[in-house]
Design goal:
This protein has 325 residues and is mainly beta. It contains 4 helices and 23 strands. The longest helix has 25 residues.
């Protein structure tokens, strides 16, 4: 292809792209900067994406958002991360997102048991769990457990630390630290409180997951609100590179490894095509920062440290066509 024809093709591409920008911006205007990550799956966990009738096997690293549903079979467990919170599902639990954006998280627990560890509550942020007979708002950072009976008639809320408010039957009930409250009925609630019971196996498992996230990290280059940060030190190392600053190098990837090679693409609204990586650490490095080839291998550059990083579906651009081959 001669230079004149190449310039014409590039000009035509720029004109078409410019013409398409308003439509693209209108259809994807300001998608939320926050997403949930399915960070841990053990046992039979099923996933139903929003707008899809079929259930499929859930895979770790899947981004979750409004309308997505999870179900854990008997003996199974799952874990989600939202940046400032971890949500963990016990067995035989039905869970979904009713809303998930920069300022609000609204979860639905149809049956089963979840525990929420809320590290921070941002200004003007609302976090709520809806069950068949009440809505529970998390008012402070802390540890919260909710259980819903299989018939949906009874909800039990345990506040290990923090404080929450349950609303149902036209009334509001405050639940304080180290309290457990049980609500029965649908239209008219029966309510009673007691001291929180001793931890059981599910509580102990949650505590072990919390301790993993709370381990001291001698080199802190990313915010704790970056979804997936807790995997980085287990699966790689940090170093400082001139011109890039702090970079993270994945361990054990083998010669010739390159990002965006081992995984798959999925269409996830409202972001569009989204990369889902196969590696256990493969969330933060593919949705924040950027990759760079340094020396003889790839490194991940997280960029400036910010309190609340902005999620992106993928950080890669494909260029094709004979002029670029």
């Amino acid at each position: 292809m001669n230079k004149k024809l190449l310039r014409s093709c590039v000009t035509l591409f720029m004109i078409c792209a410019a013409a398409a920008m308003p439509q693209v911006a209108a259809s994807q205007a300001d998608p939320p900067s926050r997403v949930a990550r399915l960070s841990y799956v053990n046992g039979q966990v099923s996933f139903q994406p929003a707008g899809v009738d079929e259930w499929v096997a859930a895979n770790a690293n899947r981004p979750l958002t409004i309308g997505d549903r999870l179900w854990t079979d008997r003996g199974a467990r799952a874990e989600l991360h939202l940046g400032n919170a971890a949500v963990r599902l016990s067995s035989q639990t039905g869970f979904s997102f009713l809303n998930l954006d920069d300022n609000s998280v609204q979860m639905q627990l149809n049956q089963g048991t979840i525990q929420i560890r809320l590290r921070e509550l941002n200004e003007n942020e609302a976090i709520e769990v809806d069950t068949p007979n009440l809505a529970f708002s998390l008012l402070r950072p802390g540890v919260y457990r909710l259980e819903v009976s299989p018939d949906g008639d009874t909800t039990t809320v345990t506040v290990r630390s923090g404080e929450g408010e349950a609303t149902g039957g036209g009334q509001a009930y405050t639940i304080h630290p180290r309290e457990q409250a049980t609500f029965s009925g649908i239209d008219s609630l029966t309510f009673n409180t007691s001291n929180a019971p001793p931890p059981d196996n599910f509580d102990h498992w949650n505590r072990s997951r919390d301790e993993r996230e709370d381990r001291p990290h001698p080199q802190r280059y990313v915010s704790r609100q970056m979804v997936g940060y807790e995997d980085l030190d287990d699966y790689g190392s940090w170093r400082v590179v001139s011109g890039y600053g702090p970079v993270w190098v994945p361990a054990g990837v083998g010669p010739g490894w390159a990002p965006y090679r081992y995984g798959h693409w999925a269409w996830i609204e409202p972001w569009g095509w989204t990369w889902v990586d196969d590696a256990p650490w493969g969330f933060a490095p593919f949705h924040y920062g950027r990759w760079a080839f340094v020396g003889n291998g790839w490194v991940w550059v997280p960029g400036p440290l910010v309190a609340r990083p902005v999620y992106a579906p993928a950080l890669v651009v494909f260029v094709g066509g004979s002029p670029f081959n």
